[in-house]
Automatic annotation (TrEMBL):
Family designation: Belongs to the 3-hydroxybenzoate 6-hydroxylase family.
Gene designation per UniProt: ZEP
SUPFAM superfamilies hit by this protein: FAD/NAD(P)-binding domain
Designated name of the protein: Zeaxanthin epoxidase, chloroplastic
Keyword Oxidoreductase: yes
Listed InterPro entries: FAD-bd, FAD/NAD-bd_sf, MOase
Positions of the FAD-binding domain: 118-183
UniProt KW Oxidoreductase keyword: yes
Keywords of this entry: Monooxygenase, Oxidoreductase
Domain of life assignment: Eukaryota
GO molecular function, one term: FAD binding
Pfam families to which the protein is assigned, alphabetical: FAD_binding_3 (PF01494)
Organism ancestry: Eukaryota, Viridiplantae, Streptophyta, Embryophyta, Tracheophyta
């Protein structure tokens, strides 16, 4: 459909899920640890599972490695001498659930980027707007796309299906502004959190991050309002 290839943003991520069959020991909160060009975090997602990530600067994505045991060793090497809780999470992660991905995004520039639809073909989620995971909104935006698209198609089908192409265009036009904002903000936040200058990192850790997380607008990107979807009677 003419979209550009997603652009590598200069850092990669390890991700995995630790297993605690007897119950994980952590409180129900997100734990972030910041370094220089390196950060990590973990959060309990059930009584027995803890999700974790490590994000690190890398000038290029590097060669692809699919061997999970090698990936886990690389992740542990990056986290050497980091807090024991984080290392415990990594050690409790089965090799076969560790993944490494280069972080990429695609900015949908107005007037330059292709539309979300061509004729009766339409894209949603990462197929249209891959974004970095720094705001935790990639999958959420895909779900939002689906809700808006369903609403547009529902209205078109009630009209007998004559306006499906127009409905697809309307979906893309409605979603563009929010998608552009979230993609750009995620990219900016990731760049700030991946600083490696020691002086700048001190400012980030002691002033910028505490100030940001106290602001109510910091999480405004998670707000999404939509109309109730009306069922379409089958014919």
């Amino acid at each position: 459909m003419g979209f550009s290839e997603p652009k590598y943003v200069g850092h990669c991520a390890f991700r995995g899920i630790a297993l605690y069959p007897e119950g994980q020991p952590f409180k129900a909160r997100v734990n972030y640890i910041y370094g220089r060009g390196l950060r990590a975090g973990f959060v309990p997602i059930s009584q027995a599972k803890v999700y974790w990530f490590i994000c690190f600067n890398n000038p290029s994505p590097g060669p692809r490695t699919d061997d999970p045991s090698i990936l886990k060793k690389q992740a542990l090497e990056l986290m050497r001498n980091w807090p024991s809780d984080l290392l415990d999470v990594l050690h409790n992660t089965p090799d076969d659930v560790v993944i490494k991905t280069p972080l990429v995004d695609r900015w949908l520039w107005p007037g330059f980027s292709p539309a979300a639809s061509t004729d009766n073909v339409v894209v949603v989620g990462d197929a249209w707007h891959p974004m970095t995971p720094n705001l935790g909104q990639g999958a959420c935006c895909a779900l939002e796309d689906s809700v808006v698209l369903a609403g547009k198609l529902s209205a078109a089908l009630k009209d007998g299906g004559e306006s499906v192409e127009a409905a697809l265009r309307a979906y893309g036009e409605e979603r563009w502004a929010r998608i552009f904002m979230v993609t750009a903000r995620a990219n900016l936040v990731g760049s700030l959190l991946q600083w490696d200058n020691p002086v700048v990192c001190e400012f980030r850790n002691n002033i910028m991050i505490p100030w940001f997380v106290r602001l109510a607008p910091f999480l405004e990107h998670t707000n999404f309002e939509c109309d109730l979807l009306e069922p379409v009677a089958s014919t």
